């Protein structure tokens, strides 16, 4: 009985680690990104949304790039910790694969903060890994919803569908020869809307909402498991 209770206690601690790290990471990322957007808005107005999100980390363009890059590094580390906890929980086979793809996304976020767009070639490679990681992560979450022990609630599922569409849109717009996107502004034509930037901002917001919804889903699983354990203990099964 003691071994079983100790195991359940460790599981509950891992649940809390996953929930807290995802929530803290998403909060830090949102704070850093939106602060950077606000500061840039003071200079160029609403046109900030026609600029790619990763340009906010360009040290040669904005004096507040360190806010954006630091928030990415901290948020990425939180994501790595949360995915480690999710892997150790072993809730299902899909959750293990989801944790591995999430770890790739988390590591990519850390590296994008360390190597912003100033380090162009390295940044291109890292951001491509991030993009592929998000596509795989969303696909696994969509597939996991139809498994027996799903860790993805319906809000997470719907956000995964939207995220998969947005990430796939970026994949289709990516130039695989240069691992970069076609600039929205060229020598003769300025487009009214930059669809790459709009898609990128859409994906960024979806990912932050997905993280919060996923943390809530894991929290509900933890509460459910704890209540089941309590009922079995009171019934004398342990």
Automatic annotation (TrEMBL):
<keyword id="KW-0812">Transmembrane</keyword>
<keyword id="KW-1133">Transmembrane helix</keyword>
<dbReference type="Pfam" id="PF06197">
    <property type="entry name" value="DUF998"/>
</dbReference>
<keyword id="KW-0472">Membrane</keyword>
<feature type="transmembrane region" description="Helical">
    <location>
        <begin position="125"/>
        <end position="142"/>
    </location>
</feature>
<feature type="transmembrane region" description="Helical">
    <location>
        <begin position="100"/>
        <end position="119"/>
    </location>
</feature>
<feature type="transmembrane region" description="Helical">
    <location>
        <begin position="66"/>
        <end position="88"/>
    </location>
</feature>
<dbReference type="InterPro" id="IPR009339">
    <property type="entry name" value="DUF998"/>
</dbReference>
<feature type="transmembrane region" description="Helical">
    <location>
        <begin position="154"/>
        <end position="175"/>
    </location>
</feature>
<feature type="transmembrane region" description="Helical">
    <location>
        <begin position="195"/>
        <end position="216"/>
    </location>
</feature>
<feature type="transmembrane region" description="Helical">
    <location>
        <begin position="17"/>
        <end position="39"/>
    </location>
</feature>
<protein>
    <recommendedName>
        <fullName>DUF998 domain-containing protein</fullName>
    </recommendedName>
</protein>
